[in-house]
TrEMBL record:
GO terms for biological process: cell wall mannoprotein biosynthetic process; protein N-linked glycosylation. InterPro entries: Mannan_Polymerase_Subunit, Nucleotide-diphossugar_trans. It is a single-pass type II membrane protein. Keywords: Glycosyltransferase, Golgi apparatus, Membrane, Signal, Signal-anchor, Transferase, Transmembrane, Transmembrane helix. Residues 48-84, 178-198 are annotated as: Disordered. This is Golgi mannosyltransferase complex subunit. SUPFAM superfamilies: Nucleotide-diphospho-sugar transferases (SSF53448). It comes from Aspergillus kawachii (White koji mold). Belongs to the ANP1/MMN9/VAN1 family. It comes from the Eukaryota. GO terms for cellular component: mannan polymerase complex. GO terms for molecular function: alpha-1,6-mannosyltransferase activity. Residues 183-198 have a biased composition (Basic and acidic residues). Residues 1-36 form the signal peptide.
Length: 381
């Protein structure tokens, strides 16, 4: 009588071979692709530098390029990320920034995307392998459009010539709604909108700073998204002064109807030397009130760097000491931020955002400087 198939004794050899086959199949599925490991060796010196300097685990700071690790343990599982050690005492921020390979983090709050802004950043002559960039974008319709355009521009640059590629780029989306939806210039600069707008800007700047500042960052360059023209040597020109905080003069190109030709005019009035009048005004204010600069309704009689420019015979290296700074283009030693200087989203000595930052930096013992004859240019709407 024939025995039913289900009752037949299974051979141990068959079981062993089936288990071995299943294990081999699982190893095949879990093993990393060999395409990256089999890639042709890099011969370009810049590419080699980037590859050798790149972080190799997901916990790497965003100020370094990240190459996915291919490390696999003997059991076929990926190795855990290593413990990283950083000695901040060896980190320098000097007047010889390029020679010493000092890393620069460019940070930009972005509400609208201007191609001229990105083209200008790409033209910066500071070695791009030492530059990381961070953006923070509001959750608005304009913000969505800005991210789409920004990602396209980034893709073209980062897939282009190696020397043009930046070490890393991060894009953050704000986790709060902006108080002013319109990005129209007149609406943005209404005096009645300034406190809410600038406190919101402070929150965005702080979120961007605290998320992207890595242990290898020497300098932070705050660069507004509507700065469309700077010298290509902007970073090395500013670091050459070796100041804790330094700001160039922000102007705007426009068509002068009186002279019938292109002309320039001051744009940013937040870089100033304090006055006794402003101090007296602050002394009479309530705890939640702030001083604003550049409004006829609140005359402070501060000395404005915007009006100290010598456009006829400029001396770009000329320095002055300031009490307040604007943020259109602002270079800060990373240690100033690490020591606690941030952008107050609350009245700090009746100042907020970049002006409050300058006050905070000075309270921490750092000096703040401006360059009246060194110009960057704002987009003209």
């Amino acid at each position: 009588m024939a025995v039913a198939r289900s009752m037949r004794r299974t051979s141990p050899i068959t079981v062993f071979l089936a288990a071995l086959l299943a294990f081999g199949f699982l190893c095949f599925l879990l093993s990393p692709s060999s395409s990256a490991a089999a890639a042709a060796p890099v011969t370009d010196s810049s590419s080699q530098l980037r590859r050798e300097d790149a972080a190799e685990h997901p916990l790497s700071p965003p100020t370094k390029p990240f190459l996915k690790s291919q490390a696999v343990r003997e059991d076929g599982q990926k190795a855990p990320p290593p413990v990283m050690h950083y000695n901040l005492n060896e980190l320098s921020s000097t007047s010889e920034s390029i020679k010493k390979g000092e890393r620069v983090l460019i940070l930009t709050p972005l509400a609208r995307f201007y191609q001229e802004f990105w083209d200008n950043v790409v033209k910066l002559s500071y070695p791009h392998e030492f530059i990381s960039i961070g953006f923070i974008v509001p959750k608005t319709k304009d913000g969505d459009a800005a991210v789409t355009a920004l990602e396209q521009a980034i893709s073209e640059t980062q897939s282009g010539p190696v020397d043009s590629r930046f070490a890393s780029i991060s894009i953050l989306r704000q986790d709060f709604d902006p108080p002013i939806q319109s990005q129209d210039e007149k609406e943005r600069h209404k005096m009645s909108n300034q406190k809410a707008r600038r406190e919101s800007m402070s929150r965005a700047r702080n979120s961007l700073l605290f998320t992207t500042l890595g242990p290898s960052t020497s300098w932070v360059l705050w660069l507004d998204s509507d700065i469309v023209e700077t010298p290509a040597t902007l970073i090395q020109d500013l670091t050459a002064h070796n100041r804790p905080v330094i700001v160039p003069n922000c102007f705007q190109r426009y068509y002068n109807k009186d002279t019938k030709k292109m002309d320039v005019r001051p744009y940013d009035f937040n870089s100033w030397i304090d006055s006794s009048t402003a101090e007296e005004l602050a002394g009479m204010m309530g705890p939640d009130e702030i001083l604003l600069e550049g409004y006829a309704e609140m005359p402070t009689y501060r000395t404005l760097m915007a009006y100290m420019a010598n456009t006829g015979a400029p001396r770009p290296s000329r320095e002055i000491e300031l009490d307040g700074v604007g943020g259109t283009a602002l270079l800060v030693k990373a240690d100033v931020h690490r020591d606690g200087a941030m952008f107050p989203a609350f009245p700090f000595y009746h100042l907020v955002e970049t002006e409050g930052f300058a006050k905070m930096a000075k309270r921490l013992g750092y000096s703040v400087y401006g360059l009246p004859d060194y110009f960057v240019y704002h987009y003209n709407e």
